[in-house]
Amino acid sequence: MAKKYYAVSNGRNTGVFKDWASCSTSVKGFSNAQVKGFNNAQEARAYVNKNSVPTQTTSNAPSRGSCNSFSSRTSSQPVQKPVQKATVYTDGSSKNNQCKNLGKAGYGVYFGDGDKRNISAPMKGKNQTSQAAELKAIDKAMDHVVSDGSNKKYTIATDSQNSIDCIRMGGDRWQNNGWKNSQGKPVQNREVIQSILDKKEMVNRSYNNNGRGNIEFQYVRGHSGIHGNEMADQLASQGATK
């Protein structure tokens, strides 16, 4: 997968960031934050030069936590376009998870037939559960939603109601109680859930600034003939075998 560069044209620090962790510190919780993803640094820098809004800090020095980050004196607002709705389907799959240490999971993200953004990939690390894969698929879909420069409003569709509950209801409660579940134990899959929540917050700010409301997470019944869900399921199953 091509390396991502995140171009922040309005945030605590404007510039180009090589990873989401550095980028998020400049845009999370910042009003009217603007960020777009690119596959090469040159295009990302050109975007910042053209669209940067002066930061509210007293210094134009690069952020220490960023890479190739710089501020710009120019300001430009994007032209408003009619809102288009789009749905991206996500799914997770796990094979042999009934056998200890033999489980292999994968995730799938489906934007459309032949879409280069479609993803079929294996889960990395020890957590090879289906639920972890479901959440990872949503997180990867959110990467593309965050970096999408169009005027589309996305809905993420999944057949995992548990994942939707984690995002809709669990996030605020867990963040307020130190990420403990109802039994007082650490919440499983905290890292990926937190990543989704961070990206959701930024997307909603961008959508609200442009009158698009909030990003939506929709439950769809699995294996019910919904083309997007069936394709995401195939991608996830293929990912689990890689």
Could you write a compact summary of the structure shown?
This protein has 242 residues and is α/β, with parallel strands linked by helices. The chain is 36% helix and 20% strand.
* SSE class: alpha/beta
Globular, elongated, flat, extended or rod-shaped: what is the shape? globular
Overall mean pLDDT stands at: 83
The proportion of residues in beta strands is: 15-25%
Proportion in helices: 25-40%
Give the H and E element order. Answer: EEHEHEEEHEHHEH
Number of strands: 8
The strands making up the biggest β-sheet line up spatially as: 6-5-4-7-8
- Amino-to-carboxy terminus distance: 15 Å
Oligomer: single chain
Low-confidence parts, pLDDT < 50 over ≥5 residues? Answer: 55-79
Please work out how many helical segments DSSP would assign.
Answer: 6
Taking all Cα atoms into account, the compactness measure Rg is 19 Å
Largest sheet: 5 strands, mixed
Pfam family, one: RNase_H
Region (Disordered): 51-92
GO biological process, one term: DNA replication, removal of RNA primer
Biased composition (Polar residues): 51-79
